[in-house]
Every structure is written in structure tokens, then in C-alpha cells.
Design brief:
Distance between the termini: 24 Å
Mean pLDDT: 91
Largest sheet: 10 strands, antiparallel, barrel
Shape: globular
Number of helices: 0
Low-confidence stretches: none
Strand order of the largest sheet: 1-2-3-4-5-6-7-8-9-10
Order of helices and strands: EEEEEEEEEE
Radius of gyration: 16 Å
């Protein structure tokens, strides 16, 4: 019987669209990452490279409809929790101080699970501060086998 490894390399492609007031930005990354399967979750870890800044990123997929995103570097630290039609309170930690925000998941489509670790994750969410929308975001994550 062949066993599946607990960790292996993968190709991570992430596109994020950000709308704040009237401005719109889009960022795309393709990075080599590591998939780690545990008994309770699938972890996708990689480092984004943008404007001479390295940002370690972790996605934790606990269930088909429960995802945590953690991004941190020398200047910021943020953990976002996504569950369809739910809002979670969190802190956006910056070198200037902490900003309380809420994360509202507006749409959620996930094909990635511990049993099926390749595919797409698409989340549209809003960040709020005192019930006012700071911005809306569309995150599209694609996980593919590394060669």
C-alpha cells in the first residue's frame, strides 16, 4: 500500500482584486509553496514577493467551508477567517498600531480539501471598521502539482 506524504511542494497562484472607495487594484502571484496535510486540516504555505518585501502566507483549510488566511511580515500581521455568510472580528496589526476590523465573507467556493488538495478557492469578502466598509476583496487561489 502506497502512503501519501504529509508535506509536498506545490504551485500556488493567487489573484486578489481590491476595491476601496473608487480605486481598484489587482495583484497576482505565482509561488512555489508547501502543502501539509494533518489529521484535522490542510495547510498551504508560501512566501509572496512584492516590491522587495517577502510576506509569508498560510492558508488553513479546516473544512470545505472554513478557511483561515494568515499574512505577516516586518510591518503587518493579519489573520482573516472565512466562513460563508459569517462575520469575524480581528485585528490588523501594523507598525503604527492595531486596527480593529471585521471580515464578512460575501461569497465562498472551495474545491480544496485534505482529500482533494488541488483545485480552486474563490472568496469575496468585505473588511469593515465600525460597520463601515473599508474595502471589498476578491481572492482566487489555485493549487496545482509541482513538476
Amino acid at each position: 500500500m502506497q502512503t501519501t506524504p504529509k508535506s509536498w511542494s506545490t504551485i500556488v497562484t493567487l489573484t486578489t482584486q481590491i476595491t476601496q472607495d473608487t480605486s481598484h487594484e489587482e495583484f497576482s502571484f505565482e509561488e512555489v509553496g508547501i502543502l501539509t496535510r494533518t489529521q484535522n486540516a490542510l495547510y498551504i504555505r508560501y512566501t509572496e514577493h512584492q516590491q522587495n518585501l517577502e510576506t509569508p502566507v498560510t492558508f488553513k483549510i479546516s473544512q470545505i467551508d472554513d478557511v483561515l488566511l494568515h499574512r505577516h511580515n516586518d510591518f503587518t500581521d493579519m489573520q482573516l477567517h472565512f466562513v460563508p455568510n459569517k462575520t469575524f472580528q480581528t485585528q490588523y496589526v501594523t507598525s503604527q498600531g492595531n486596527i480593529p476590523i471585521a471580515v464578512r465573507t460575501d461569497s465562498f467556493v472551495n474545491q480544496i480539501t485534505a482529500d482533494h488538495p488541488y483545485g480552486q478557492l474563490a472568496i469575496t469578502y468585505s473588511l469593515l471598521n465600525n460597520d463601515s466598509i473599508i474595502g471589498t476583496y476578491a481572492l482566487n487561489l489555485s493549487i496545482a502539482k509541482a513538476n
